[in-house]
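Lab notebook, bench 4. Still working through the backlog of constructs that have no structural model yet. Next entry is a single chain of 196 residues. Request: give me the structure tokens for it.
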Amino acid sequence: MSNIVWHKTTIKKSDREYKLKQKSFVLWFTGLSASGKSTIANAVEKKLYDLKFNTYLLDGDNVRHGLNKDLGFDEKSRIENIRRVGETAKLFNDAGLIILTAFISPFISDRKLVRNLFEKGKFLEVYVDASLETCEKRDPKGFYKKARKGEIKNFTGISSPYEPPKNPEIYVSNNGLSIDKISQEIIEYLKKNKYI
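Model written out:
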């Protein structure tokens, strides 16, 4: 790394934000599999789009089709998965965009590592809280059933822990509320705190 030097550019993030007429920040959705992270992140992005904001959604499954297709699901690979997504979100943040990410990201230490990539106030942790029972009932991909049978190793909530955020910027409970209502709560938070 001693032969690598950061190349300074003329156009800064503040210039891009000015041109896009918005503040850039990251909404980091975390929670158990089937908690509704992707669905809620998608609904929030649609509301932001309708309000004329420039956004990009990084989804856990979608990223593993390309950027992270070489990674498995062992602990080392999962940590690298989150590291790469954090660095990608940082680049999009520098581009002046509002980034939404939907990743289980089960470990507090990994989420802290990503948070530390951003300036203060640019990283908003969104904890989508749904009980394990609720997530198992939903189980749209059949992963919980497979994990209970031992067919999937290191599955969060079953054979691998999930460490909930202690102080997320945004907390939403997804145990029965409508997606529209939950996503609107997040939009209201962003308005109240002058992110949008």
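Notes after review: The first helix runs from residue 13 to 20. The chain is about 40% helix and 15% strand. Flag for follow-up if needed.
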